[in-house]
Write a structure and sequence with these properties.
By secondary structure, the chain is an alpha+beta fold. It has one domain. The chain is built from ten helices and ten strands. The strands form two sheets. Strands 1, 2, 5, 6, 7, 8, 9 and 10 form an eight-stranded mixed beta sheet that branches. It has a two-stranded antiparallel ribbon with strand order 3-4.
Length: 302
């Protein structure tokens, strides 16, 4: 399937601008388009900070602040980001050479349900979507087919560990239950790669992208345009996402069936998650971790 099929609103906005110069009348759509165009046309300030990848900044946590400052906040109409205070130390400026003030604060990002997954999200964008900061590895853990929509951005070696992929899946599903309806995304950030997950908790539809290169190549400090476009659409999903297309509505992820009677517990997902409930280990749903560890997506890959 193509990425366009779940972002028909966003592609229509772009098509109208590129073919006729038409600019949307509503201010939020106009702002979303302005963000993308400004980033693509004037990205010289942000390329040096991002092209080095996470290795330059000493840790994945520092890298998270850099990529939030120089990429995510530049593409999103929402500029409020909250990082997990339990694992990320408060910083007032970006770890990059320019030391700019950053829009990412630290605080309580806990989320969970009593009998299911509980934990802290690395970064939350305006309480609209989770962002997972990956622990990198040089090993290729699994292989995926290259999709037509993202062939030029596809990488051969993934830097997401199996644990990270499982956590991305868990956080995507849980945050969708927290939001209650619609196709909710989660962005995975690696050293120089990104990966996108989407879940609709009402329709039980799970989608994922291939792992995508952030930069065009190691030799060139140029962003991969396909990846930037997909990130822009995802970050502004509340404006630009058209939801699950009809042809996918019968391709269920099977999570509802796996949960059985515990499905109602996930529908009561809360954030922040009450600390006192973390002690009730015996109440956690017994099979959900096995689902995340062994789940294989249906062939809904961008």
């Amino acid at each position: 399937m193509s990425f366009r099929s779940i972002f028909t609103f966003g592609y229509k906005l772009l098509d109208e601008f590129l073919t006729s110069g038409s600019v949307p009348k509503k201010e939020m759509y106009k702002e979303a388009l302005r963000k993308l165009l400004q980033f693509l046309l004037d990205d010289t300030d942000d390329r040096p900070a991002l092209s080095a990848g996470s290795s330059k900044y000493g840790s994945e946590k520092n890298w998270a602040f850099v990529i939030t400052q120089h990429l995510l906040s530049k593409l999103s109409v929402t500029t409020e980001f909250l990082a997990d205070s339990a694992t990320m130390k408060e910083v007032n400026c970006c770890p990059c050479d320019r030391k700019e003030m950053i829009p990412c604060k630290t605080g309580n990002t806990s989320i969970g349900c009593v009998k299911g997954w509980q934990g802290e999200l690395d970064i939350v964008m305006g309480m609209k979507m989770p962002i997972k900061v990956a622990q990198t590895t040089d090993n290729c853990l699994f292989e995926e087919n290259v999709s037509q929509s993202s062939a030029s951005a596809e990488v051969n070696k993934h830097d997401f560990t199996e644990r990270d992929l499982n956590q991305m899946l868990a956080q995507t599903i849980l945050f969708s239950f927290y939001k209650g309806k619609g196709l909710i995304p989660c962005i995975g950030l690696g050293s120089s790669f990104v990966k996108l997950h989407f879940y609709d908790c009402e329709k039980d539809i799970l989608l994922r992208s291939n792992t995508l290169n952030l930069m065009l190549s190691e030799e060139h400090e140029s962003f991969e345009t396909v990846t930037i476009l997909m990130l822009w659409l995802t970050l502004n999903y509340e404006l630009l996402c058209s939801g699950v297309p009809d042809e996918l509505k019968n391709l269920k992820a099977g999570f509802h069936e796996e949960l059985g009677s515990f499905l109602e517990c996930y529908k009561n997902t809360t954030s922040p998650f009450p600390v006192q409930l973390n002690d009730h280990e015996e109440e956690k749903e017994p099979t959900y971790r096995g689902y995340f560890d062994s789940y294989k997506d249906p062939d809904i890959v961008f």
